Amino acid sequence: MRYPLFAALIGFAFFGGCATPPAPQPAGQGVLVIAHRGASGERPEHTLEAYRLAIAQGADFIEPDLVMSSDGVLMARHDPWLSDSTDVAARPEFAGRRRTLTSPEGESLTDWWTFDFTAAELRTLRARQVREGRSKAHDGLYEIPDFGEIIALASAEGAARGRLVGLYPETKWPLEHAAAGLDMASAISAALTAAGLDKADSPVFVQSFEPLILKTLRSRIGTRLVQLVYPEGWQAGAPANIALEEIATYARGVGPYKSLLIDPLTGAPTGYAAEARALGLEVHAWTFRDDDRPQWAPLPEDEIRAAAVAGANGVFTDYPATARRALDNR
Questions:
Q1: Could you say which of 41, 125, 201, 250 is the most buried, measured as most Cβ atoms within 10 Å of its Cβ?
Q2: DSSP 131
């Protein structure tokens, strides 16, 4: 049975360490379908068309990764570089904008960067499918939207369907944006406040790999915050890079890479979700893809159901229709 989003939100009406954590839900009940970059398995990621399709397929939340333009507009791209997800390399007028920067992981990257373009310039680019093996039929058709457009889309599409459609923005490279003179925390908090989405019961989660921006946002807005984590050193069986006890002091949830939640060789629960939920944390695992699944899962639905059994409250997926089907038919 599908659990409507408004029912799932009833238990989310508090925020912060001073409130009593909710009792853990039965495993697999009310699991949220979070459209990872929209329905990015079928449309170029982070386009209004990808988000619209995800909503039509039953996603409870749509996920816009947020970067910023040089004039301070929040735009939807998975990364602040542009060569793989847009046609910027084919645009001679922007050839001189290419330059080298160092990533948060210390890697030197030469590319075109969102914070070297105005929002108007970014809107002239056209989006492309970034993953190999997926259809390129929609390449070159869609613009890069800003956060305001995505908020409006979620509201309109939800109203048309008589249900809430939540937003799940992720901050990308906030420290590098700050070096470019751009304050991502202020931009996000201002956008959510202007839209009336800055409360603990708003249908919004804000996620990040970087604790500092989440702690900054916690002091400014009541919107629920989620700390993204991955296995230390990306080693099989390694603990998460940030301890759950630390996360519980400033965030409402944790977003673990799926191998922290379920054994990548068998799909068995690791116990991670149970530990997180005992601390009052929501558990939203990433990323489930029909075209990239483990050998033990003959069907993509199998991996999603395993995550639900392991205790996930939500799953990020490139294929919302698959997750909706998997969870509704449990």
A1: 41
A2: S
Position 97 scores a pLDDT of 96
Q: What residue numbers bound the domain in which 301 lies? A: 5-80+143-328
When divided into structural domains, the chain yields a total of 1
DSSP code of 33? E
Question: Domain for residue 14, yes or no?
Answer: yes
Check residue 167 and report its DSSP letter.
E
Residue 270 CB-density burial (10 A; 0-12 exposed, 13-18 middle, 19+ buried):
middle
Confidence of residue 29 (pLDDT cuts 50, 70, 90): low
Burial class (CB in 10 A: 0-12, 13-18, 19+), 92: exposed
Structure token digits, residue 236: 């099989």
Is 89 inside any structural domain? no
From 5-14, 137-146, 189-198, the region with the lowest mean pLDDT: 5-14
**Which tokens is 14 given?**
């508090």
Largest distance between two CA atoms of the chain = 57
Neighbours of 259 (CB within 10 A): 19
C-alpha torsion sign, points 1, 58, 302, 275: negative
Tell me the CATH number at 295: 3.20.20.190
pLDDT tier, 3 (very low <50, low <70, confident <90, very high otherwise):
very low
Is 113 within a domain? Answer: no
**Share above pLDDT 70 across residues of the chain, in percent, rounded to a whole number:** 91
Cα angle 67-134-144, degrees, rounded to a multiple of 5:
25
Q: What phi and psi, each to the nearest 5 degrees, are found at residue 150?
A: -70, -40
Place of tokens 């305001």: 148
Residue 281 within any structural domain of the chain? yes
What is d(CA 308, CA 261) in angstroms, rounded to the nearest whole number?
10
What average pLDDT is seen over the chain?
91
CA–CA dist 182, 186 (Å, integer): 9
Question: Are the C-beta atoms of 316 and 286 separated by less than 8 Å?
Answer: yes
CA distance 37 to 56: 15
pTM: 0.90
